[in-house]
């Protein structure tokens, strides 16, 4: 600029001299030299003007580059804070999983205790059946003793009634009938005792098998429901991550259009990163996206707790469990539709 001002002063001076020389009508040779020098000065002035415009343009471009670098530094600092928040969230998640593991272990202990109590009850029932069988045997022995007593009485009566033939024949027929009835009673009693013993043993075995099968089915159902909920939760999280990545890919393409390749390469070389990593860092989420992610995490946590409460609740709970699972399936369906629309726009 100083050189430009000097040239302008010289040009004005030369014009003044040329005007004074034209008025005095002196020698023509110096005026021609003055015109040539004026033309040279005008050329220098034009060159200086063009050079100043170039330098001002370069200064503006350098200022823009400095502003872009400052913006990138701020974005990188925001990315570092977001990564720290993600790390704390992952630590909380690990602590939650540990607490759930402890709760599952406690549930397993309670189930083992209930199984032991049931086994004790089964043993008590077997002992009761054994006691009843022993009491029936004792009754049978008493009946046999009574039979022997009746036989003795029969012999005595036979000795006494030998004197009377008519009474003797009648008594003998009666005795034969009683003996037949006694033998029938004995056989029927023994058969009933054996049948009762077999039925009690079979009933105990059937009850024990049904009890074990029922407990196994209940545990298998709980395992199925827990696995299903975990799989739904995992797939919904994967869809959310894919949607975020699709949004970031679209934003990254828009960012590529707005930034020059030379500026990106310069920033990548300064930060010792590749251009793709720099795009990813530039396009990663803000505070609103972080808050949304945290809210979704809390909702998933409440949903899993609701499923666990339903499994631990009293019967019936199938309709409530079905409503909870359908809610998560509908959410997954919406996420799939959103992801497909994003992929169409991205392509």
Automatic annotation (TrEMBL):
Gene3D superfamilies: 1.10.287.1490. It comes from the Eukaryota. GO terms for biological process: centriole-centriole cohesion. Residues 14-33 are annotated as: Disordered. Transmembrane segments: none annotated. GO terms for cellular component: centriole; centrosome. InterPro entries: CNTLN (IPR038810). This is CNTLN protein.
């Amino acid at each position: 600029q100083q050189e430009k001002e000097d040239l302008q002063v010289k040009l004005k001076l030369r014009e003044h001299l040329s005007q004074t020389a034209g008025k005095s009508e002196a020698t023509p040779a110096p005026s021609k030299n003055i015109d040539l020098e004026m033309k040279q000065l005008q050329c220098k002035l034009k060159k200086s003007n063009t050079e100043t415009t170039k330098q001002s343009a370069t200064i503006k471009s350098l200022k823009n580059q400095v502003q872009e670098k400052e913006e990138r530094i701020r974005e990188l600092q925001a990315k570092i804070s977001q990564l720290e928040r993600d790390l704390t969230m992952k630590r909380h998640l690990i602590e939650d999983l540990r607490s759930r593991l402890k709760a599952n272990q406690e549930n397993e202990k309670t189930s083992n205790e209930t199984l032991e109590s049931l086994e004790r009850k089964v043993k008590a029932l077997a002992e009761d059946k054994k006691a009843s069988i022993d009491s029936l045997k004792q009754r049978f022995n008493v009946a046999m003793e009574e039979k022997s007593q009746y036989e003795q009485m029969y012999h005595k009566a036979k000795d006494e009634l030998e004197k009377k033939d008519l009474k003797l024949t009648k008594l003998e027929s009666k005795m034969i009938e009683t003996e037949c009835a006694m033998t029938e009673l004995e056989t029927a009693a023994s058969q009933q005792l054996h049948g009762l013993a077999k039925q009690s043993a079979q009933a105990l075995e059937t009850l024990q098998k049904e009890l074990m099968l029922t407990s196994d089915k209940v545990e298998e159902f709980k395992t199925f429901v827990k696995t299903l909920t975990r799989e739904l939760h995992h797939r919904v999280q994967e869809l959310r991550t894919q949607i975020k990545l699709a949004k970031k890919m679209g934003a990254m393409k828009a960012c590529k259009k707005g930034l020059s390749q030379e500026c990106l390469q310069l920033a990548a070389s300064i930060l010792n990163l590749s251009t793709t990593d720099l795009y990813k860092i530039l396009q990663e989420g803000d505070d609103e996206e972080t808050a949304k992610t945290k809210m979704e995490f809390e909702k998933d946590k409440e949903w899993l707790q609701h499923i666990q409460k339903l499994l631990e609740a009293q019967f019936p709970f199938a309709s409530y469990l079905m409503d909870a699972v359908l809610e998560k399936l509908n959410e997954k369906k919406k996420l799939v539709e959103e992801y497909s629309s994003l992929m169409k726009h991205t392509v």
